[in-house]
Amino acid sequence: MTDIHFGNLILEELRKQLRSVSWFAKEMSYTRGNMYNILKRKNLNSDFLLRATEKLQHDFFLDISEMLQTTTKHRLEDQ
Fold first, then answer.
1. Which residue has the higher pLDDT, 34 or 73?
2. What is the 3-state secondary structure (H, E, C) of the chain?
3. pTM of the predicted protein model
């Protein structure tokens, strides 16, 4: 199984866009503290990821799909 940390994916995109967690929390209607706690999580629900995709205009689902394809390809090559 692939070890994807969804919170880190979002944090990486925030850094690329030079946006703060405080900005993102406000956009998502969370407090800054709650958002930090959410982004520490390895697993996030699909509704949250969809909202994050919309707010950041970045397709996290595509990122995840590409990671899974790469992992599957490597696993098949190793067999």
1. 34
2. CCCCCHHHHHHHHHHHCCCCHHHHHHHHCCCHHHHHHHHCCCCCCHHHHHHHHHHHCCCHHHHHHHHHHHHHHHHHHHC
3. 0.84
